[in-house]
Amino acid sequence: MLLFLDSMKYAKVDLHVHFDGSLDLKWQYERAKLRNVISADCSYDEYAYQMYRNDYPSREERMKRFDIPLAVLQTKEDLYDGIYDMLRYLNDLGLVYAEIRFAPQLHCLNGLSQYEVVESLCEGMRKANEDFMIRSNLICCLMHKGDSARCNHQENVETIEVTKHFLGKGVVALDLAGYENNCSFEEYGYLFEMAKEYKIPYTIHCGEMGKGEHVPLAIQMGASRLGHGVQCVQNDAWVQEVIETQIPLEVCVSSNCYDNKDFKGHPIHILLKMGAKVTINSDNMNFIQTNVVKEYELLAELGITDEVLKQCMLNAIECAFCDEETREWIYEQVCW
């Protein structure tokens, strides 16, 4: 029988945390000034306002906030330093394992290749893993762009090739991210057929932005986990498939409730009650102003029991894309 610390200390693993949306704000502000991304007279408060303002006319417009940190993360040095600083923060929070996702193609604006982007992040992550207690891996994201999967076909194919090269060397999986309602979800199926040929595991963002029908499609496309997936509750058959397959859900409550703050109405309560395999994650720590510790605290305040929170952590360890040696090490850190 495993014994655990109090419920707040179940927050040991984060499987769904985005690199560009989770940078320390002060760090990125200083780098933005250094790289002339912002004017020299831009104050910290002005910079923070652009990140946290809530008067965007639409969700699509609000997503453009990602352009701000992405403009900073365009050199090998900033990629290396950025992920190192992020892992230092996660280590200080008490996490022992994280899978950090990013889209290599979004860091090539100043001439870096996707290979150089991933290489720089792997180097920074490796140094952090040496210096801190935390262990980590990377997930490379394919991107939804435009009204067709062909809009950035070449960039996505390159991401798969780069992921194949770094698989087991710091990169553990693929993802599909971006605004999921741009075009027919099935259009991206051929990319995951490539991933299968290369034996690359993958998760898929789906059922986050309103279309629960994407959840069964992602399962059919062979995903090992689902990024969010909570809108499966729109249809009993979709929920039942999630329950029967026990496909892990990477749930990010505060992110999903960013607009309405209806935490009590979040689908996680239904999914847990019905027996879905739920993991608890942060998504974008900076944009949402959260972290996985806060997410566990929030759910405890909403009445989710220690037993359930413990199981969510165990689910995360069980379905992490890490190797078995790392998995055993994680278990040793959280159980005794």
The main pleated sheet reads as: 4 strands, parallel
Q: What's the number of domains?
A: 1
List segments where confidence is low: pLDDT < 50 over at least 5 consecutive residues. Answer: 1-5
For the record, the CATH class is Alpha Beta
Shape: globular
Helix content: 40-55%
The ordered string of helix (H) and strand (E) elements is EHHHHHEHEHEHEHEHEHHEHHHH
What fold name goes in the CATH topology slot? TIM Barrel
In terms of quaternary structure, what is this?
A: single chain
Q: Helical region count?
A: 16
* CATH-level-4 superfamily name: Metal-dependent hydrolases
Return the CATH architecture.
Alpha-Beta Barrel
- CA-atom Rg in angstroms: 19 Å
Summed over residues and divided by their number, the pLDDT gives a mean of 93
**What is the distance, rounded to the nearest whole angstrom, between the alpha carbons of the first and last residues?**
9 Å
Q: Which band does the percent of strand residues land in? A: 5-15%
Number of strands: 8
The SS-based structural class is alpha/beta
Strand order of the largest sheet: 1-2-3-4
